[in-house]
Amino acid sequence: MTTPSAALHAQLRPVIGAQWINLGLCVALLSVAFALRHGISPAVWIRSTIILAVSLFMLLCGNEMRRGRRWAYVRAKWIAALGSIGFVGVAVLPGPFPAWMRIEQGAQALVFLALTWMMTRPALALFFPRVKAPIHSGTVNPVADASARDASFDYLRAFIVLLVLLHHSVLAYAVMWPAQPSTFNILPAPIVDPQRWAGFDLLAVFNDTFFMALMFLLSGLFVWPGLARKGSARFLRDRFLRLGVPFAVAAGILMPLAYYPSYAVTGADPGLLAYARAWSSLGFWPGGPTWFIGLLLVFDVVAAGAFMLWHRWTANTKAALHVGPYGSPTAFVAILLVVSALVYVPMELVFGADRWLALGPFSLQASRPLLYATYFLVGLGIGAAGTEGGFLARNAGLAQRWPIWVSAGLAAYALRLAIIIMLVLPAVRAHQPLPLTVRLLSDLTVVLCCGTISFAFIALFRRFAIAHHPVFDSLSASSYGMYLIHYPVVVWLQFALLAVAAGPLAKGCLVFVGSVGLSWGMVVALRRIPVIARLL
């Protein structure tokens, strides 16, 4: 509990004022609902009543915060952050609410976003410190062991790999695909189950907007320190060993194994020679998820060359590396969004969002290589400046204001869904080309989601992933190998479940749990072999 003071009351004055404004909007909403009571749905009454109760509780929390109660501060902060998401969803997504209520909900969303910003300001948070048990040591502000790995980035990388496994596990049960083709072809979903659920489409759209770009950012974080420690030649040798060899094995052996079920469901000759002929008739070598490893290796080669040139130049000029507005996360992400729009939107307009380019086992989504290169460069620049300083510091604005970043990411995703549902899907169902304005709006929401959701996850993990845990450490150490070998496991599990009488949600969960368990177990076993442990 914090002792009440004039300074605390001064900080809370705008917070409580915004809470009263929110209550006034609730009363206005109920008044309009009562005036139109004969022509509105029950959903309006239910939501209006819930909002009124929440608004009254927020005022109670404001009163308790004036007395220094931390529990009230924590609850009010969470309600503001989560309420922002709910209000944005009601305002922009289709539902049973009339237009006048959507406008009012948009106004309340602005109030709650303002509350979230005010509640997460360090100047206010200082009055409600987290109570911690005293830790007695022989030094003041001891410096962490430099050799210790940072749990936040390791665990975030492992989490994104789990999202990749989840993404591939549920694609077979998404509504977006046509029926399983009768001829062997390479599609984003090698198996298309008759059981479908639209919720998996929402998950697939969410993942597709950000998770591979964030993977490239995380991959770039430690490139510059590695180059500085090893030099370009040794760094490249290690990269070719750790990326090039697994890429060759995965693309050359695992991917033909992964795509066999897609061939088998066509009813063609199940023999291996017949499959080999069908494979060779494709005209290219499908690499599946290994495209990420190949493109990352290319980026590492370019980074090593750039480091060599930079090292020679700085040896003569003594110039320092500068990475821009690294102190402000808002300015940094704003610049990233502008650059991302400049490199992604023209490429999408030229190539389209779904076209892939292939050269042997190397493939990439035609509209996104420059976007991924941008995020890799961002990671490289942040890593060069140091991950413990700037806005990535645990006590800096990004981690401390994680509710704002999470709200921004979810609001961006809600906006993207609104564009897809209201503008993109009607044109697709009518088999008409998308107008230029719709494509531009769709592309800009991709860019917005990519930046805000990526940094929302970084903020979450920098704030909460602090201590190491043996299970998470094992998952983190195995995540690279899991990415490499999971695809055959996922596709064969989907193939095995085709004949099982179960719903799409049950099948998707079974495939995900099975692929995580099997991939994780196999990687742990393989890493016991010293030669393979050097690669995985």
TrEMBL record:
Name of the protein this chain belongs to: Acyltransferase
GO molecular function annotation: acyltransferase activity
Keyword field: Acyltransferase, Membrane, Transferase, Transmembrane, Transmembrane helix
Natural source organism: Bradyrhizobium jicamae
Transmembrane segments: 20-38, 44-62, 74-97, 109-128, 155-176, 210-228, 240-260, 291-310, 331-352, 372-392, 404-428, 440-460, 480-499, 505-526
Recorded superkingdom: Bacteria
Keyword Transmembrane helix: yes
InterPro entries from the UniProt entry: Acyl_transf_3_dom, Glucan_succinyl_AcylTrfase
